[in-house]
Amino acid sequence: MRLYSARKAGQLRRMLVLRSILFNFAYYTNLIVWMVLALPSMLLPRQVQLRIVKLWTRSNLFLLRTVAGIRCEFRGRENIPPGGVLVASKHQSVWETFALFHVFADPCYILKRELMWIPVFGWYAAKQRMVPINRGARSKAMKDMNTAAKAQLADGRQIMIFPEGTRRPPGAEPAYKYGATFLYSELGVPCVPVALNSGAHWPRRQFIRRPGTIVLEILPAIAPGLDKTDFADRLQTDIEAASNRLLAERP
What we know:
By secondary structure, the chain is α/β, with parallel strands linked by helices. It has one domain (70-249): Glycerol-3-phosphate (1)-acyltransferase. 48% of the residues lie in helices and 15% in strands. The longest helix is centred in the first third of the chain and has 36 residues, at 2-37. The chain is globular.
């Protein structure tokens, strides 16, 4: 019985590795193909390119489902206020960097400046008017980020920020930074917290893709007007509690 169980576990492990290899090959091939095919959109209006990005996002969700056996569930869309808002999302994986395009109408990401230097990717990021920040500039970076974010809000866009600044393993101790709180205090718009469990299926710095369901949950918006301390506490509490609940839902 033990020998049978060991063999079964070995077969499942080999299947997991094989599906993960196939998915990664398909994902990066798909990325390259879309980046090349979309190059003419650099000469077209930004909204045309945005529609292409959304199609690419849908193709990634299709590959996840059919190749890796990972389904994606999006909850709480009714919690998105109309118009320009600040969106603060948990960050566990590469997955949410594209999946948020599937949920929000016109995302504008706050991202580190170095990403803008990547050939082709940086061109698209600039075309989409993403907001680069120089992490080494500190106070100047905050001021520039605020100015750029306000300009994009005026166009009714959603300002996307990962409050911890980088990917964190599922269940890890929270490490929220000041950027989201600063933007909330300066922009004067609702902040929409986003919880997820993506790291349990698409772990950071690993090639394994674990079958199951990635859930992204849009939580009730935090109205403008809280002081910075109350907002920071509320944001972390809401996101962490919901993300931990989503992790606990997994079979």
